[in-house]
Amino acid sequence: MKRTIKYTISGLIFIIILLVAISYYFSSLVLYPKVNCKLDHHVYCQGPVELGLEFEEVQFETVDKLNLVSYWIPAKQNKGSIIMVHGHGGQRNEGLRFAKSLHAAGYNLLLLSLRRNHGGFASMGFHEQKDVEAALTFLKSKGFQKIGIFGFSMGSATSIIAMAEHPEIQAGIFSSGYGSAIDVLVESAKRDFGIPYYPLIPVVKLALNLRGDMDIDSVRPIDHIASISPRPIAIFHCTKDDYVDYHHAEDLFAKAGEPKSLWSPECNRHERLWNFSPKEAETRAVVFFQKYLK
Fold first, then answer.
1. I need a labelling partner for 17 at 20 to 30 A (CA). Which of 54, 127, 150, 173 fits?
2. What is the torsional sign of CA 275, 279, 282, 287?
3. What pLDDT, in 10s, does the model give residues 68-84?
4. DSSP 3-state assignment of 236?
5. What pLDDT shows up at residue 4?
6. Looking at residue 256, what is its pLDDT?
7. pLDDT classification of 10: cutoffs 50, 70, 90
8. What is the pTM of this model?
9. Are 231 and 175 in the same domain?
10. Does the keyword Membrane apply (predicted)?
11. Other C-beta atoms within 10 Å of 271: how many?
12. Are residues 118 and 239 in the same domain?
């Protein structure tokens, strides 16, 4: 009997240790993704110079003392300024695919570099709100009042919440974003690793919250998007997105108020709308901002 109890206790301890180790590993994938530029995805990995755009590197500080070194691409016409917010594991160059056409249309571009690239960690949009706030403060300190936002994936989720919280953002495009951070992580765990919700996911959530000083369950752009109206938004999303399922775009669109639009080409890779149809992607982005940010 004593031996059975001993083995049972040992087994439980082993399971707990295993759960903690696995949750630490998966929370690290979220908090500390590898940052890289992939030519088949981001295309322009050498910076604005690759597009022949004049730019400067600007630096501004977040409220929690991180210095974000971002690309500033000024336009002569100065119709407005657009903050471009990259995704999880991405860099400031992610918005360059749209940069040349938006710049030619007369818009200043601030390609924001998020905290993961400056000594911080990724938080699926929780702490990145501070990065967008720092970018807004930078623009307003320069006297720019007409401000739009263009987010990609995690940057899209971040941008939805930021636009809802900051009425000075007048128009927003949200590309390949999600309605709930934890939902997209749960879907990814099941799809890519065959991991069910119980018993691992609650432990991963706990690890994320403790290690990241956040509440991952609160990162829910779908709870914020309706309050953006009557400011205009556009949602871009591949119908066969292989990471953030298309239902996130449908759910967000259903919750959003007018004016709103949804572009959903039949591409099958996450955040590759431009790659699938560059001309149409650029035209839609330019037309949107020309209509609503002027």
1. 127
2. negative
3. 999 999 998 889 999 99
4. strand
5. 67
6. 98
7. low
8. 0.94
9. yes
10. yes
11. 29
12. yes
The 10s digit of each residue's pLDDT in 203-247 is: 999 999 999 999 999 999 999 999 999 999 999 999 999 999 999
Among all chains, which residue has been given the structure tokens 């992580």? Answer: 185
248-278 pLDDT, tens digit per residue, is: 999 999 999 999 999 999 999 999 999 999 9
User: Based on the structure, what is the number of domains in the chain?
Assistant: 2
**How many C-beta neighbours within 10 Å does residue 74 have?**
17
Residue 195 pLDDT: 85
Q: Is 263 helix (H, G, I), strand (E, B) or coil?
A: strand
- How far apart are the C-alpha atoms of 5 and 3, rounded to whole Å? 5
Which 3 state secondary structure label does DSSP give 234? strand
Residue 9's CB is within 10 A of a number of other CB atoms, namely 10
90-95: Cβ within 8 A, 24+ apart = 90/35, 90/42, 90/114, 90/152, 90/153, 90/154, 90/155, 91/35, 91/36, 91/37, 91/42, 91/117, 92/117, 93/37, 93/42, 93/44, 93/45, 93/47, 94/42, 94/152, 94/155, 95/150, 95/152
Q: Give Cα 89 to chain centroid, integer Å.
A: 10
Angle at the Cα of 24 from the Cα atoms of 22 and 29, rounded to 5 degrees: 100
Mean pLDDT for the stretch of residues 168-183? 98
CATH of residue 164: 3.40.50.1820
Both 131 and 211 in a single domain? no
Among the candidates 218, 241, 272, a domain finishes at 218
| Site of tokens 């099958």 | 268
Task: Say whether both 230 and 195 belong to one domain.
Answer: no
> In the chain, where do the E strands start and end?
56-61, 67-73, 80-85, 107-112, 147-152, 169-175, 233-236, 260-263
Considering the domain architecture, whether residues 4 and 105 belong to the same structural domain is answered as: no
